[in-house]
Predict the structure.
Amino acid sequence: MGSRWTWRLLALPGVIWLTVFFLLAFYAVIAVAFGNQNTLSEPVPFWNPLDWNVGYMFDTLQNIWQGDQFLTVFVRTFVFVTLALVLALGIGYPVAYFAARHAGRWRGLVLLLLILPFWINYLMRMLAWINLLSPDGMGTRFFSSIGIERLFLSLNLLSERGGWLEGQPFTVIMALTYGYLPFLILPLYAALDRIDQRQIEAARDLGASPAGAFRRVTLPLSRPGILAGLVLIALPMFGDYYTPDLVSSSTKTTMIGNQIDQLTRQGSEKVVGASLTLILAVVLLGLMFYYLRATRSADDRAEA
Amino acid sequence: MSRLRNPWGKPRFLVLVTVVYIFWSLIPVAIAVLFAFNNGRSRTTWQGFSTRWFTGASGSVLHDPALQGALRHTLFLGVVCVLVATPLGVALALGLQRWRGPGGGTINTVMLLPLVTPEIVMGVALLLLFLQVLPGIGLGSTAQAIGQVTFTLSYVVVIVRGRLVSIGKDYEEAAADLGAPPHDQLFRVLLPLLAPAIIASAAVVFAISLDDFVVTQYLSGDASTTTVSMLLYASARAAPTPALNALATIALLITLATLALAYVVYRRFAGNDDATAMVGVEV
């Protein structure tokens, strides 16, 4: 219908919007990161790439390289995120497997309950745990009465009685797992649901044990879904500052997101904050494109 | 069924993990909702049922200016976001779907990027944009709405384009064969067929806007631009009253009601299969 220009005209407002509020905004980060700052530590962006000043970026990278504060925070972020991903996959895979394969007539209900947390405000889900884990909270009393608190104290995972929300790395990792798990289960479910049952039957007919069929058929076929799901939740975890703020609010659990948040929004040194943001974005860019490519090729296969 | 036994032995193990997970994921929230109805100031000890934190004379969501203001502002941003992002996204989806020639692939990638960009990166980028490039707009409601539209736009495009693919080009070509001019093909054939997807994406945009935190916080101006999420973040640890739980409960009910309504509408017009895809919307 119409000429090709009709369609381009329809796309135009959206294209302009994305150019200004996404591409130009991102360019502003680069211009500030490679800019200068005035005596009030306010950014003086350099828009022309020929003027770019590498000084602040160099200082930031040097801080990371020499193992100063930024490196500590980068490493801690990486450890927290990795542990949370492992936990999330360990819990999420069996749940998704059950929903896709064994839920039978309960499937609709199970799916509804798995999707529900997806649409509950993240901050409210954190508020719920803050209520439970406050010193006189129901969770704290429960953990104390069944001996979990004593166990955690002796394992050094908890530093004082009732101090679940006082700068405990364990609490932050559990909160991250709790927060992002629903977003992992759905892609896992979709990947497991897509697997053709006949391929597993074929493996069994050819003499594979149930465990063998799982290991050599189901697991490899669900691997793209596992990777895409893990990337999907790793990306926001790397930029998270509110979870550690809410369940710990201690410098012992500062993540890279907290560092960026303090430097940019809370405003002390926006130029250094922009450098850190840029470094984080570059580190994560590979993951972002991996995810887009993985989902697109999955769509192509589904359409073919 | 016995031949397809699962490798972890009897499904009993899987049932256990699933049931424990579902309880773990939902019970804390259920308790938080329950304590919104507590007849006392405690958020940890039950003191009887009451709706005082919703409508009571003092300190309730209805009468506390901060709580009421946050709810109002959240809903305001949600409505603005739907009104801007939905038409913008529908047009972009139509344009991209029929785009011929160079440029389409690049635009498509740029359109999908906001879905995977960590929100803090977008927050910082938009913050610097409004401070350094567009100081005329500055921080506040307008900036917050623009920020939310920028990343909800992609959801609209993805949902609408999915429906466009399943409709195919037949109806449009039939209309053209029968002599319909281009703008009739668009307004009298394509858009009515797209209606379920448009309603679904409007609901998703509204729900995402209501729950958004990072971008909204980065672009907020003074206290009058505080949203429900921002208030939860700011006062969750500051020993507040159950009124905070009541506020979160109201926001939750609005989100779920919106999605349920859209689900029913979508199911009525587009069939069951597509509707299941809508509630679990992802990239």
